[in-house]
Amino acid sequence: MGDWAALLEGFATAAQPEYLLYALLGVTLGTAVGVLPGIGPAMTVALLLPLTYSLEPAAALIIFAGIYYGGMYGGSTTSILLNTPGESSSVVTALEGNRMARAGRAAAALATAAIGSFVAGTIATLLLTALAPTIAEYAVKLGPADYVALMVVAFTTVAALLGASPVRGLASLAVGLFLGLVGTDTLTGQQRFTLGAPTLADGIDVVIVAVGVFAVGEALYVASRMRHGPVEVVPVDGRWMTREFWRRSWKPWLRGTAIGFPIGTVPAGGADVSTFLSYAAEKKLAEHPEEFGRGAIEGVAGPEAANNAAAAGVLVPLLTLGLPTTATAAIIVAAFQSYGIQPGPLLFTQDSALVWALIASLYLGNVMLLVLNLPLVRIWVKVLRIPRPYLYAGILLFAALGTYAVNFVVDDLLLLLVVGLVGFFMRRHGYPVAPLVVGLILGPMAEEQVRRTLQISQGDLTALVTSPFAAVAYGALLVALVAAVVLRLRRRRAAGSEVTPTP
User: Fold this and answer.
1) Region label for 267, one of left (φ > 0), alpha (ψ between -120 and 50) or beta (otherwise)
2) pLDDT digits over 7-22, tens only?
3) Sequence-ordered list of residues with C-beta below 8 angstroms from that of 245, at least 6 positions apart, any chain
4) Where do the coiled-coil regions begin and end (predicted)?
5) How big is the CA angle at 106 (ends 305 and 89), to the nearest 5 degrees?
C-alpha cells in the first residue's frame, strides 16, 4: 500500500505545471524524432543530455522518459506512411501497416497503432509500478558477486542479441570495456591508457561517447545513405476505426502487452525481439491468416502494443538493478550518473520522490501521446518533408555545441570527432553501437564489484560463482546461449531443406 501512496505523491509532483510542460516537451520531441527516419530516441537523448545540465534531475529525466515513449509511438507513423521505420522496433509494423496504407486504410493503421500503444503503455506502466519496488527490495540483498553475475549476463546477451553477428557484438562490447578503462585507476591512482593526455586523466566522458556514436556517427551514416529526390508519403485516407477494426484489434493489443513487457525486462530483450514474436503469434492466431502480407490489422496492433510494453519493461532492470538493456536505456543511465544518482536497488529509498515522479510522468505522457498522435497525425506527416541536408547538419551542430558545453574544453570536440568517425565505420560495417555504450557504462561498475568480491574472499576466484544467485544466473545464461545456437542451426537446416530440390 505504501508503494501506491508513493505513486500518488509522484503524481502530485508530476502534475505541477512546470513538470507537465517538461513531459509535453519530451513526448513531442520523442514523437517528432520517431517520425523522422534514421533518428531514434537514443540519438535524441544523447543529443539533449549535455543541454539539460541546467535543469534539475526530475525535469531532465521526465523529458528523457517522454522522448523514450514518444519515439516508440512516432516510429509507427513513418513505417505505415513511408515504409521506412523511424526506429528498429518499428520494422515489423511496416510489413502490414504500409500495405494497409496503400490499400486506402492508412487512418485505421495509424489509429490501431496509437491506441494499442496507449493500452500497452498504460498496462505495462502499471506492472512497472507493482513489480519494481519488490524487485528493488530483493536486489538490496544481492552481494558483489551477484552483481558481477548480472553484469556478465547483460554483457553477453547484449553483445550476442543486438546486431546480426554475435562476434561483431562482442567486438563492440570489447571496445566499450576498453574505453571504460581509460583514465585514473581509483585503487592505485595510476593512469591507464591516457597516452599522456591530461584530458583523458579523468576518463572518457560517457556523454561524449554517447553523442559521438549515436548523434555524430548515426547522422553521418544516415546522410551517406540518404535518398535523393522528394519523399513519397502515402496520404492518410479511410475511416479511423470501424467496429470490425476494434473487434480485430483488442485481443492483439492485450497479447502484445503480455509478450512485450516480460521480454523488455530481460537483458537484450527489448522491443525488437518482442515485436517479431508478437507478429509471429498474431499470424498463427489470426482469423484471416491469408491477409498477412496484404495488410492485416492484427499485424499492426500486436507488434505496436509489444513495442510500447517492452519500453516500460526495459525500465524495470534499469531502475531496480541499474542495468541498461537497450541503447536508449544506456543513455538514460548516463543521465542519472551525470546528476550523481546511481540507478539500482537503493534508488527507491534514497531518491524515492524522484523515481515516483518519473513513473507518474509515464502515465501522464501516455495520455499526452494519444492526444498528439491521433488528431495531429497530418502535422507529423509534414515533418517528413524537412530537407535532409538541413536536418543532419543541424544534428551535427547541436552535437558539437552540446559536447563543448559539458566541460568547455576544445579537446572534447576532437574526441567527439574521433568517436563519431568510429561510430560511423561501425554502423557502416554492421557493428552494433549499443554494446559499446553498455560496456563503457557498466565496465567500471563491473570492475569495482569484481575487486570487492575478491577483497571479501581474500583472492578466492571461486567466490565469483559460488553464491546461489550467481550460480543460477550463469546457469540461465548457459541455457540461453545453447538454446540460441540450437535455434540458429535449426533455421539454417530449415532454410537448406527449402532450397534443396527433391528428386
Assistant:
1) beta
2) 888 899 888 999 999 9
3) 108, 111, 112, 297
4) none
5) 35
> HEC states along 227-258?
CCCCCCCCCCCCCCCCHHHHHHHHHHHHHHHH
3-state secondary structure of 461: coil
- Contact, 61 vs 358, CB < 8 A? yes
Residues 6+ apart with CB under 8 A from 414: none
- Give the distance, in angstroms, between the CA of residue 183 and the centroid of all CA atoms in the same chain: 28
Count of Cβ atoms closer than 10 Å to residue 54 Cβ: 8
Cα distances (angstroms) measured from residue 105 to each of 239, 241, 405, 450, 469: 7, 10, 47, 56, 51
The answer to whether 116 and 249 are in contact (CB under 8 A) is: yes
Intra-chain end-to-end CA distance of the chain, in Å: 69
CA 455 centroid distance within chain? 35
- Rounded to an integer, what is the distance from CA 378 to the centroid of its chain? 26
Q: Which three cell numbers stand for residue 82?
A: 513511408
Q: For residues 175 and 182, what is the distance between their CA atoms, to the nearest angstrom?
A: 11
pTM, full prediction? 0.81
Is the predicted pLDDT of residue 503 greater than 50, yes or no?
no
Contact indicator for 332, 45 with CB cutoff of 8 Å: yes
Spatial contact of 268 and 158, defined as CB atoms under 8 Å apart: yes
Q: Are 369 and 73 in contact (CB under 8 A)?
A: yes
191's enclosing H/E stretch is strand 191-192
Residue 96 near residue 292 (C-beta atoms within 8 A): yes
Q: How distant, in Å, are the alpha carbons of 116, 122, 213 from that of 259? A: 13, 15, 30
Question: pLDDT, tens digit, for every residue of 261-277?
Answer: 988 887 655 666 788 78
At which residue does the C-alpha cell 510500447 appear? 308
- Rounded Cα distance between 180 and 131, Å, is 31
Q: What is the residue type of 100?
A: M
Q: How many residues in the chain?
A: 503
What region does 229 belong to: left with phi over 0, alpha with psi -120 to 50, or beta? left
Annotate 154-181 with DSSP letters as a single string: HHHHHHHHSSS-HHHHHHHHHHHHHHHH
Task: Count other Cβ atoms within 10 Å, centred on residue 413.
Answer: 15
Check if the beta carbon of residue 433 is closer than 8 Å to that of residue 427: yes
